[in-house]
Design goal:
20 strands, UDP N-Acetylglucosamine Acyltransferase, domain 1, globular, 5 helices, alpha/beta, 241 residues, four-stranded parallel sheet
Length: 241
């Protein structure tokens, strides 16, 4: 009965919309969510630590100490994000594609058995059969293509694009285009001046009102602009960037 009541409370919560085919831990942190931009859970099983405004999770499975920034999209089917040893952080405005696997743990293969033997036979915590290399950090505005695997302890820098079918075994610098098995950086999205402009702008930290006021900024082709055009762009904000 308690489970049914909790699910009903979630479904009428203006900050989190969850359809009847989904589950979500009731104690997820959601106090800062703007009810105009609720988190939406569609046909998914989710157990987060923190979820923020505007997130959309569709046909995915997410378990453990996972922190989602603002307006993160996680799109299945087949996408699994699982944190069992460390933590997984996914930055604001990042997009995770279909059939992506993100984990923060490995099996302990140095032992006699790499299985969950302590859990299955000795009835101990399953984490005793696992090891980690640190948290997985996906910074803001990262696009992860379908069928990608992201391994423990990896940081993917802000603004990067990960090509479909990649295996991420090491850190990816900011604004990189990386792909392959193992993934390698093949090019940068923008030159250094434009990257500095974006980093100084910190648009991913803007309020929703600021983003709306500057709609035109998000419609321009940064690659085709020269740096002076960007520097002279008329930002409509009370803040000085």
């Amino acid at each position: 009965m308690k489970k049914i009541i909790k699910k009903l409370l979630l479904k009428v919560n203006k900050k989190i919309f969850i359809d009847w085919d989904s589950t979500l831990n009731y104690n997820v942190v959601n106090k800062s969510i703007n009810s105009k931009y609720p988190c939406r859970i569609i046909e998914s099983q989710c157990n987060f630590e923190i979820v923020n405004e505007g997130c959309k999770i569709s046909e995915a499975k997410c378990f453990g100490d996972i922190v989602l920034g603002r307006f993160v999209t996680i799109t299945g089917p087949g996408t699994v994000i699982k944190s069992l040893k460390e933590k997984i952080f996914i930055g604001s405005f990042s997009s995770i594609g279909q059939n992506v696997c993100i984990v923060d743990f490995n099996h302990l293969f140095e032992r006699v058995s790499s299985s969950f033997i302590h859990h299955l036979i000795f009835e101990e915590d399953f984490r005793k059969d696992l090891t980690g290399k640190g948290p997985v950090i996906i910074e803001e505005d990262v696009w992860v293509g379908s069928n990608t695997v992201i391994l423990p302890g990896v940081t993917i820098g802000r603004g990067s694009i990960i090509g479909a079918g990649s295996i991420i075994t090491k850190d990816i610098p900011k604004y990189s285009v990386a792909y392959g098995n193992p993934a390698k950086v093949h090019l940068k999205r923008f030159d250094d001046d434009k990257i500095k402009y974006l980093e100084d702008l910190k648009w991913w930290e803007w309020s929703i009102d600021e983003i709306i006021k500057n709609k035109m900024l998000f419609s321009i082709n940064v690659k085709d602009c020269n740096i002076n055009e960007l520097l002279n762009f008329n930002l409509k904000s009370e803040k000085s960037y």
